[in-house]
Amino acid sequence: MNKKTKLTKLVLSFAMLGLMAGSAVAEELSGTLAKIKDTGVIVVGHRESSIPFSYYGEKQEVIGYSQDYSNLIIDAVKKELNLPNLQVKYLPITSKTRIQLLNNYTYDFECGSTTNNLERQKTVDFSDSIFIVGTRFLVKADSNINSIEDLKGKNVVTTAGTTSEIRLNQINSKDNLGIRIITPKDHGDAFNALETGRAVAFLMDDALLAGERSRAINPAEWKIVGEPLSYESYGCMLRKGDTQFKQLMDKTIADAQKSGKALESYNKWFTQPVPPKGANMGLEISPKMVELFANPNDKALD
After folding, report:
1. Which pTM value belongs to this model?
2. Residue 239 has pLDDT above 60, yes or no
3. Which domains does the chain carry?
């Protein structure tokens, strides 16, 4: 065997070792990705009435701005695990159940209208942010309510298990406003309390309020008022310490935001008519959202 032949064999041997090592690394999955690979199933949490983020369409399919991100993440998982026929199951969740059901492995991740904050980071992780909101009030257009001070001694509704509920309780107690707080389980029930007169104001994230207003018989009867009590960022939620899955989610979200795909999704859901009633949220993109798309990050705003 001449030197050239020996050298060729040596190079080929190292190449084969490299391929084997690469293959071994690729198979060293952990956390959610390992679970999905083993079962061939991914379970996706979603909201039922968080218009226009995550809600049911006319055919009971899950649609919305946040669902667009969910779909991108599902596609990325299929590609990463080489599972083009991955079975996708959907699970409806509420503000109260979403963390518990995630951590007991009932579902694998959710992109809805979940605020990334420091308290929640103690028990779950969040992807790069997908939306930034301000917390405000929805009231009758002909009311004289313009701020939280105008709500002293009145009934105010906000969805149970949300950061808005926590914030309203804090301000109510601190400023001794005597507000009677109603806390139904989801945003649709909260808006119903407002529409039927059981409450004079609905405190929630402004984009969600725009979504609920769009479902009214006459959306023009309602207005969003007040300086934001807080700004919050929504992220997709996953189990704590799941580094591999978070990296995949973050890359998928950042790619969408930097490529312009996320802006297309924003315009589709917030500046144009959307199902089921063809209402328009009428929310032009904010400077905070423009900045987020230019510089994707997973920062909590509290």
Report:
1. 0.81
2. yes
3. 29-132+233-294 (3.40.190.10), 135-231 (3.40.190.10)
